TrEMBL record:
Record carries keyword Repeat: yes
Active-site residues annotated for this sequence: K357 (for fru-6p isomerization activity)
The organism of origin for this protein: Exiguobacterium aurantiacum
The protein's Enzyme Commission number: 2.6.1.16
Protein name as annotated: Glutamine--fructose-6-phosphate aminotransferase [isomerizing]
Location relative to the cell: Cytoplasm
A GO molecular-function descriptor: glutamine-fructose-6-phosphate transaminase (isomerizing) activity
UniProt entry keywords in alphabetical sequence: Aminotransferase, Cytoplasm, Glutamine amidotransferase, Repeat, Transferase
Main enzyme class: transferase
Lineage of the species this protein comes from: Bacteria, Bacillati, Bacillota, Bacilli, Bacillales
Length: 362
């Protein structure tokens, strides 16, 4: 429906698409559950994953970052070994493959040339592939054995937002379905928690002015910025850094907190913005130590934490979410901060220089 992709009253597609995220999560819940509230995947998808002894995720850009989270979900919930690869590297750097590999392509558009090239190669070798995409009928969907759709609606802004959260939600559903099939004990009720996540997303999106102020305060005039986190938070930090560099042209790096001392701390000066996520109960004390280290060297700290791990001086505190699903909510402040930083710097948010929505050449 063409009216679906109108900007309406929104200044930018990116803002509209960020706002759609709670509805997308609800849509995904609906599409992937049956009348009894149980997860339902097609028989085709179920038989593909049940045969696999290892999953090889292949993706680019934001979809790759969703893949990093997906690996954690599949390994920790379903217990299936999973690797994540950047598509463009895969061709000449192919890892050792197990006997029954399953290739999992993650692509918003389903048209990214680097991922398509890998799919052609793995099919030539007789391996099976599953594609997670937002576009039914896209090349990666048609050419793989099976498809899982993101149900996120058209994404127009070059900087991907709702596709990322949709990918993570669908990966969680996939991980749960594999776990159930393998008789694993499920850590929590996924569909209930996803519904709660959607409500929390609504509340974050209702507080946009806070992130506009943070962007003005921390990023309007800065040359560079760092994103820190540990575990899940470090993957979301990579996505935060990518968002910021894509649309505001600020040089941004995402690092796991523990790596700080092995290089990036040399770049901390008076006024360097350091944006840190604190949402993981098993590492929150360590990451607090990292914040102290950078502040002692002059950094200005913008800290996004989660209830139960918060400090008085934090910039924003998110309601508590299951540790495996925190990326669905921790990414929102980072998307919003990037958006408002780009606006404050007069950048073309929806069409950043040198970038394309879908890169169809290798
Ligand atoms: C381009 C876009 C990114 C996107 C990447 C992968 O670089 O600008 O936003 O993450 O391609 O795209 P895909 O459609 O395969 O997810």
């Amino acid at each position: 429906d063409a009216s679906d992709i109108e900007k309406g009253t929104y200044a930018h597609y990116m803002l509209k698409e960020m706002d759609e995220q709670p509805a997308v999560i609800r849509n995904i819940i609906q599409h992937y559950q049956n009348e009894n509230g149980d997860i339902e995947l097609t028989e085709g998808v179920r038989s593909l994953v049940s045969e696999a002894d290892r999953i090889y995720i292949v993706a680019c850009g934001t979809s790759y970052h969703a893949g990093l989270v997906g690996k954690q979900l599949i390994e920790r919930v379903a217990g299936v070994p999973t690797e994540v690869h950047v598509a463009s590297e895969f061709g000449y750097n192919m890892p050792l493959l197990t006997e029954k590999p399953l290739f999992l392509f993650i692509s918003q558009s389903g048209e990214t040339a680097d991922s398509r090239a890998v799919l052609v190669e793995v099919k030539k070798r007789g391996y099976k592939a599953l594609t997670l995409t937002n576009v039914a009928g896209s090349t990666l969907s048609r050419e793989a054995n099976e498809t899982m759709l993101l149900h996120a609606g058209p994404e127009i802004a070059v900087a991907s937002t709702k596709a990322y959260t949709a990918q993570i939600a669908v990966l969680a559903i996939l991980a749960y379905d594999i776990a159930r099939a393998n008789g694993k004990k499920l850590p929590f009720d996924l569909m209930t928690e996803l519904a709660r996540v959607a409500t929390i997303m609504d509340s974050v999106m209702a507080q946009k002015e806070i992130f506009e102020q943070l962007a003005d305060k921390f990023l309007k005039e800065s040359r560079n910025a760092f994103f820190l986190g540990r575990g899940m938070d470090s993957y979301v930090g990579l996505e935060g850094a990518l968002k910021l560099k894509e649309i505001s042209y600020i040089q941004a790096e995402g690092y796991p907190g523990g790596e700080l001392k092995h290089g990036p701390i040399a770049l901390i000066e008076d006024g360097t913005p350091v944006i840190t996520l604190v949402s993981q109960p098993n590492t929150h004390l360590n990451i607090r130590g990292n914040i102290k280290e950078v502040v002692a060297r002059g950094a200005v700290a913008c800290t996004i934490s989660m209830e139960g791990m918060e400090h008085e001086s934090d910039s924003f505190v998110l309601p508590r979410v299951e540790p495996l699903l925190t990326p669905l909510v921790t990414v929102l402040p980072l998307q919003l901060i990037s958006y408002y930083a780009a606006l404050a710097r007069d950048c073309d948010v929806d069409k950043p220089r040198n970038l394309a929505k879908s890169v169809t050449v290798e």
